[in-house]
Amino acid sequence: MSRNRQLFLLITVVLAFVLQISVLPQFKILGVQPDLILVVAVVVAVQDGPVAGAVVGFFGGMLQDIASPQLMGVGMLTKTVTAFLAGMLKDFFMTYTILLPVILVFLASIFEQSFHQVTLSVLGQENMPPFRIGVLFASTLYNILCVFIVYPVMRRFRFPEKEDSLALKRGVAR
Amino acid sequence: MPRTPRTNRNRLILILLIVVCITVLTLYVRESDSGPLHKIQNFFLDLVSPISSAFTKIFRPIKDGFVNLWHLPSLSKDKAELQKEVANLRRQSIESKELESQVEDLRNLLQFSEENVQYEYVGVDVIGQSPDNWQRLMIINKGSSSGVKKYMSVVTDEGLVGRVISVGSRTSVIELITDSRSAIGARDQRSRELGIVEGGNEEIIRYTPMNEEADIKVGDIIETSGLGGTCPPGIAIGRVSEVTKRSGGLTRYIKVKPYARFSKIDKALVIVMPEPESVILREGQ
User: Fold this and answer.
1) Per CB distance under 8 Å, which residues of B are interface residues toward A?
2) pLDDT (tens digit, 9 = 90+) per residue, B78-100?
3) Could you tell me the CATH number of the domain that includes residue B145?
4) Are residues B48 and B189 part of one domain?
């Protein structure tokens, strides 16, 4: 991975973190907000592979853990593992459209939240929030909505030459 | 799948990251609240809180806008319900004020009746006024079925209002002291000079003492004398507002401002007295 790409990922993670703590809490729907860091980590895993996704998940989770009053390390662990698995899973799908990150974010969201709750249970946290299926699916749907913004934007910034060639092909086809 | 150096490197990185995560988690759980990881977390929380708070302030109008848009379909329904509620509350407020006013009137009348226990009273509501400008009459909601009889006096806590001139079974007509046909025996409370109070279809009534030389001054209280038998003695009528000499200086014109505010009377008391003999005699003649 080139230095520019590493810098781009760093900026992306920090930006996702800033949006996560500032803007997204203002747009809660039915009391839930999307997990933008997870979405970014999964999208990176789709575009760059499982290790890149895991690193993004690790740093994003670390920022989230540090800046929130929760058990430090849980977010890091769950996001790292989830993004890595998402990166591994992408090879099992035969599609390279936006459907791929959508499916992976759907699976990753359910897995990450369940993993998060299981980890807290194992650690015996007394003030653990109750696990609710409604919240799980609402946040999963919200994360999927975010994919439709995050994936094209990251694709545009990371692979401008692909976008240009695609546009060129579309123009020829017409 | 054959293991390549790249695959091994990936696994190594993943294992390393997981080990770091578990180490941080273990250290965090095991350390006290004043441990280094807690301190780092608290420092960043303090750093992030103002940013979060600032964004909350910035985005609140936008958020409120979305919330309002979301609730737009139900707004017209809510508005109709609120308008209905406002109308109900307004009506209740008016009724409440009306009741307060009635309670105040009744309290004053009760006080008057307690101060004048020598008489019996019938409480009445004013239900109508004279239909033309030539008479000063009031219609009350009690008649002979309630014990109201002709020539009985009608008072409020402020003073004399008039007397009953016509009695039906459920209603009666009162001739106010300002009516031009009204003439009631009166006296000056200070000098005890007797006279007659007469109406003139105006707000001011006229007091004519029997003695032309009587000592009457502005500010004197005029009350009923009880003579004639139509009115009990000692009920306040009004206060002398003006004493003027007529042309030639032979007679005086004494204006009295009645205590009763006729335009505001809702409730009154009819003083139950035995039928006046003098009037019966006059009518019998």
Assistant:
1) 9-10, 13-14, 17-18, 20-26, 28-29, 37, 40-41, 44-45, 47-48, 51-52, 54-56, 59-60, 62-63, 66
2) 888 999 999 999 999 989 988 88
3) 2.40.10.340
4) no
